[in-house]
Amino acid sequence: MIKSAFLTILFDDIFYIMDSEQELNKGYADLSLILRPDMPKYQLLDHVLEFKYLKLDAVKMTGKQARATSRAELLKLAPVQNAVAEAEKQLRAYRQALTARYTVELRLHTYAVVALGFERLVFVEVDG
Length: 128
Fold this sequence. Notes:
- With 128 residues, this protein is α+β, with helices and mostly antiparallel strands.
- The chain contains four helices and five strands, in the order αβββαααββ.
- The protein has one domain: 3-Layer(aba) Sandwich (Trna Endonuclease, Chain: A, domain 1), CATH 3.40.1350.
- β4 and β5 (120-126) form a beta hairpin.
- The longest helix is centred in the C-terminal third of the chain and has 24 residues, at 78-101.
């Protein structure tokens, strides 16, 4: 559901080749946005997002508590850290596969996005 919301919002973007579940290095990237070859003059960035979902029970919070808790505090929770770590591992593999696939140098930024129920999102940019 969370990925679908992102796709809906970003669907009409004319600057990017948008792929959902693109096969990369024997895995499937949740959402990739690679700058179209005819758009380099805009100096935009390429992006890959990996989504993880945690039920609110996993973090022992209600929706109200999740919304009221700072991003920094949520990122300290063990279930969130585990979800981010899993996404980071996948994103590093996807980065390698994308770099090998494209002949142009990508200005790639990767993000782990963790949904806490449908109440809250937290994200972390993952370095290559």
